[in-house]
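Narrative progress, year one. The postdoctoral researcher (J.K.) led the effort to move from monomer predictions toward full complexes, under supervision of the PI. The following entry was the first complex the group processed end to end, covering 330 residues in total.
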Amino acid sequence: MSDSFTAMVIDTVDGKQQAAFRQLTLADLPDHDVLVEVAFSTVNYKDGLALSGKGRIARRTPMVGGIDLAGVVVESRSDKWVAGDKVVLNGWGLSETEWGGYSRYQRVKAEWLIALPPEFTLEQAMAIGTAGYTAALCVNALEDWGTIGVDDREVLVTGAAGGVGSVAVSLLANKGYKVTASTGRPETHDYLASLGASGFVERATLSEKGGPLQKERWAGAIDSVGSTTLANVLSQIVYGGAVAACGLAGGADLTATVLPHILRNVALLGIDSVMAPVAKRQRAWQTLGQHLNPVHLLALMRIEPMSALPKIAEDIVAGRIRGRVVVEIN
Ligand SMILES: NC(=O)c1ccc[n+]([C@@H]2O[C@H](COP(=O)([O-])OP(=O)(O)OC[C@H]3O[C@@H](n4cnc5c(N)ncnc54)[C@H](OP(=O)(O)O)[C@@H]3O)[C@@H](O)[C@H]2O)c1
């Protein structure tokens, strides 16, 4: 085991949060039950905010960034895990209140870990990451609501070329739903069609303010954009349908009316991945194992070294990343 290793650490400098590479030792890590050698992490939108300084994600500093990790257990004081187990961790406050995955070694609580799903390698698990696991939470929530797939009406995915969006398109298409992708990048249409999208909506048509009850169009929707886009999507859902809302890439505000909810019985289903209970997580990973086409997974991911983290962080916040970026830690 190496004496010192590289981590991406967020610190407070002159009142502002800044991220930089730093050498840590095992003695620096938190005193949690399980020591994991991290093989891969990833960059989600929230990681981009944390590393670029564009969002105050870390609630204390110094903070090791990275909301996800996948790796191998080195030591465990818990009887849940033994050395050699392959494990995955999504959320649970990593990079906010707890040290995260951008570190060759990390100590974490036993109950935050899940076993690597048998369908995936460690690298693939991080190609999915929080973004993909959240897409699966959204798909499950829409299916539980029960109105997608009852006729041939389409399911809309906003922010489609991003991480949540790409995995959502692939999962929904694989399950046999007709998927329409909303993107601001027409150059991604071929890519989205290869993941299973059969229709496209230009991002701008949803981001401009619209009426409270528009033409009923979508059986359901997965929204990672928020703001005016979410208000428009709610007003275009068919009677009884639902929107699984998980993101704010377009803004955290929501100026809308109650009309779709009280006149069309439309539901707004809030989706949180960070503190989701273990049973929901396991069901989401099962959905991914059964319905995420491995060819799609390969198409939507790319691998980068840890040294590329600052650039990827800037790119994801600027909406320039397509699909998912895996970060090789080890
Ligand atoms: N609730 C949760 O637990 C949870 C979990 C994961 C992620 N999230 C949230 O979900 C969102 C997406 O995360 P991600 O990791 O998929 O990020 P991402 O890869 O950056 O994808 C976001 C996508 O949103 C679109 N977009 C970007 N800026 C926009 C703008 N100003 N207006 C409209 N659309 C815009 C872009 O898609 P196009 O280029 O296709 O238009 C972009 O690719 C983020 O807000 C993230 O914080 C929440």
